[in-house]
Sequence to fold (678 residues):
Amino acid sequence: MSEGMTGSVEDADFLLSTRGAGRELGAWVVGVAFGRDGKGAAFGLGDGTLHLADPALPEAEWRRLEAHDGACLTLVPDFADGFLSGGDDGKLLRVLPDGGVSALADFGMMKWVEHIATHPSGLRAVAVGKAVHLLDKASAKLKALAHPSTVGGVAFDAKGKRIAAGHYNGVSLWFVNSREDKPRVLPWKGSHQLVAFSPDGTHVVSTMQENALHGWRLTDQQDMRMSGYPTKIKSFSFTGKGRWMATAGADCVVLWPFFAGGPMGKPPVELAGGDGVLCTQVACHPQHEVVAAGFQDGLVLMAEIGSGKIVPVAAPGRGAVSALAWNATGTHLAFGTETGFAGLVDLSRRG
Amino acid sequence: MSETSDTVPVTVLTGYLGAGKTTLLNRILTENHGKKFAVVINEFGELGVDNDLVIDADEEVFEMNNGCICCTVRGDLVRILGGLMKRRGKFDGIIVETTGLANPAPVAQTFFMDEDVKRATRLDAIVTVVDAKNLIARLADSKEAEEQIAFADLIVLNKMDLVSEDEAAEVERRIKAINPYAEIRRATRSAVPVESVIGRDAFKLERILEREPDFLTSDEHEHNEEVMSMSFEVSQPIDAEKFNAWISQLLQAKGQDLLRTKGILAYQGEENRFAFQAVHMIADGDFIGPWKEGDPRKSKIVFIGRNLNRPQLRRGFEGCVASQGAA
Ligand SMILES: [Zn+2]
Fold:
């Protein structure tokens, strides 16, 4: 282990133990999310349960809900308050911080609700098989967007005007308000999964079945290949102003510069590496150039991109980090692991 | 392929429509063995499947390695197995039923090529159900029927009540010409013991070429486009470097024709046996236990595929023998 990175293991739990709380929840943590209104933190699990915590009182009792008959596959903040949860029982659920649950849609027992994206304007995009269903505030179905193969990920741009969906041999871009539903397809051989727009809307990036990311500059459709990773990339995230894109999938946090002509022809910056443990999750702070990262051994840390300074959040030893998220103001961080540990930390609290 | 015991075993059921695949599946599920299975079926399944956890798959074959037509995986399986792993502990095994027209290679390759699948699951066996009455006709008109036999570890020769002993013997002869390593079990209404289907661990490197088959040398029958098998043996030690160079070049050049390759090798100066297997271009190999005391240290390699050139393959394999004297 590199010197000075995490200090001793006991120290690494300092933030979790003094400003937060952790729980053993008993099943794979698939997703974590904070309500966009700052109320409520939610954890979605592989046993179909959801667990709700109060960000203001992490150590208070967490509420457990039997939500899906099967596994929770994805959990995201809804457009204004509460959460949306998709399951392998075909259900799209809306969940409130007080534990209220309502089913917004039921796609059938053998269908998987695998990817959801929401936008503050009230739009919700829900990927089920090859289709992306677009719902409005009132959960009315606006349209169903068809793709040539199963959709591996879905995202809105920052303005909520476009949707990107990853699939085999490319990413489809749809205008939410266009009357004729034909996508602009960004082609690239192979299977594309998670997708995101850069915050300024000029680039689209996808993770691939291979150990690589692919990107397109939309102005001239230039391709960007981001490869050289030892494993698949399960998580990536843009910093608030979009200068950097942080990715998991290597034994450090890999950051690609999206400024000064980058990432074309620019090497990535590596942070928090050196001990040979795989980074499994990343989440960029919503405002500052700070990235939170979770590792295969359970370590959670924050890294300041400019200085490279590392602050540990939770010590290794509780399973590979499988979910990680900031709240909208960047005062709270939540994470979960494959073996069912979940943590919630209030970084604004005095130590 | 992962060899650890905490991986979940996956059994693949293939076979033509009407051969009795779903009947076999329902037999496995309803028999009183105390095991719970997650079942992945295809959308064209003919009968209902009687199980709590059934997932409807839409077979999606994805080319990898920038579009090589033989380096394919089942994208839907990668996704489904990944999802199932998030609720592991809820079942003891997974059974994947393919459509009648499916080529088994992408399914098998998924277990070699996808790291998440490799980490969490292991391919237990490919089981092919064939209809004794119609197999010969199917082999004549379908590549997939041949491939399903070529990839099988177990072949359930079904509908035995509809054929004579002579007809059955002829069907078995044809099966063995394609794949002498598969075990054949005769059955009526897919009635075979569940333990002969589940828990075979047939893809474990330790079990490669374990069965010594009655190899039929059907040299009079070598139409090039037909799938057949060839086996070669040498009794001198093999030079590991020479073998690696030869086999990687061979798989690269002929991988599309080579459906399955398996070998057990005696490397020079090495006490342990080296086991090797490949599906098309995708190879996997490792040292397995030592040679048995007193057993001859013979190296053996088997090819199942199309357009196999016997003299060329023999020369290539014999060329891997270590030069005398070099330790
Ligand atoms: Zn290939």
